[in-house]
TrEMBL record:
GO terms for biological process: cell division; methylation. One of its GO terms (molecular function) is methyltransferase activity. It comes from Streptomyces mimosae. Residues 185-290 form the Ribosomal RNA methyltransferase FtsJ domain. SUPFAM superfamilies: S-adenosyl-L-methionine-dependent methyltransferases (SSF53335). This is Cell division protein FtsJ. Signal peptide: none annotated. Keywords: Cell cycle, Cell division.
């Protein structure tokens, strides 16, 4: 672009296998000058005339589904001879140059690939947090308006600064860590839990939900935990605790047989069935007729080989026939998948 200027690189985190798709997405949606792969799941993206805030908006709205975390690179220390005190001192300087004195700051530290410094993310966090504390700043892991990132990668140690709403995710590098509880039914429930806990989408806390292909019941458990009455549709068994729950209605049949005959209207539909992405979306179009106006729908797109971003765009277009897509993103707990949240348009169906 004539007359525009290149900004400092934006650090973009993604799943290791999806560097090529996220690069194609970014080049399609933003004025990319160059993309440098810094680590297995980290790239530095140089933009022409676009800052971090605008890119974050583009990532959400376009959407760029394979970007998991963003921060604006403010400094990079080379690996040769780097020390923890040097990184911490530079971090304090970066913050002092850009933010008012005092106040709270979130700190995120992680390693992309092999740790060539030998620091480890925990020691890096402690050193920087202590230095910031000594300079009069309170450090939190999450919550404050501004986020300082420190990432060790193959090319050095990068320090980044972003407003919390620009980072996309409140976890270092988008790596959401969830503990498995005693009541957990399956690891698949982490996907829904991550989606609910890391976004501000209006997931209902009461009402009726339908869980498509529910067995063994991981997503049903999360929905019940939130206070929803759940219709779990699957010929397979549910976990015993769920089978005994009077507010879990186990419909031992297929989705295709259940939908035409049910008189129930739902506030939320979730679909984590293992099937081709297009078929999953067509199923959600069928589900639309049993949803209340404004109901939310969650669907996991199981991706194959090829150009996954094209598959996702095609699926979002298909869902757009009945829904407004609110979010489409590859979560940390997605494996070769993308999670989509959509809202049924009030004017397009669903009885009361």
């Amino acid at each position: 672009m004539t007359g525009s200027t290149s900004q400092a690189p934006v650090l973009v985190s993604f799943a290791e296998e999806y560097f090529a798709p996220v690069s194609r997405e970014l080049r399609r949606e933003a004025p990319v000058v160059g993309i440098e792969r810094l680590g297995p799941d980290l790239a530095g993206v140089t933009l022409d005339g676009m800052g971090l805030g605008k890119l974050a908006t583009v990532v959400r709205e376009a959407p760029v589904v394979f970007a998991k975390h963003l921060t604006g690179e403010a400094a990079r220390l080379p690996l040769d001879g780097v020390t923890l005190p040097a990184v911490a001192a530079r971090a304090v300087a970066v913050v002092d140059e850009r933010l008012p004195a005092g106040g709270e700051l979130a700190l995120q530290c992680w390693v992309s690939g092999q740790d060539r410094t030998g620091f480890g993310s925990a020691a890096l966090f402690r050193e920087i947090a202590d230095a910031l504390g000594a300079s009069g700043r309170a450090v939190r892991r999450t919550g404050p308006e501004w986020v300082l990132s420190a990432c060790v990668h193959d090319r050095g140690v990068s320090l980044g600064l972003a407003a919390a709403d620009e980072a996309l995710c409140g976890w270092p590098g988008g790596r959401v860590r969830l503990a498995r509880s005693r009541d957990s039914v399956s690891r698949a429930e982490f996907k829904l839990e991550e989606l609910i806990s890391t976004t501000d989408l209006p997931f209902p806390r009461r009402g009726r939900a339908i869980d498509l292909g529910a067995s063994p019941g991981g997503w049903t458990r999360i929905l019940r935990e939130r206070g929803l009455e759940v219709w779990s549709v699957d010929p397979g068994d549910l976990a015993p605790a769920l089978a005994r729950d009077p507010l879990v209605h186990h419909e031992r049949t297929t989705v295709g047989r259940f939908l035409p005959g049910t008189p129930v209207r739902f506030d939320l539909a979730v679909n984590d069935m293992r099937m081709p992405p297009k078929l999953s979306c067509e199923t959600m179009l069928d589900v639309a007729r049993v949803l209340r106006p404004g109901a939310l729908a969650v669907v996991t797109l199981k991706l194959g080989k090829g150009a996954p971003e094209r598959t996702v765009r095609s699926c979002l277009d298909l869902l757009g026939r009945r829904y407004e897509v609110l979010l489409a993103r590859q979560l940390h707990h997605n494996r070769n998948e993308v999670s989509v949240v959509a809202r049924l348009a009030a004017a397009r169906g669903g009885g009361r």
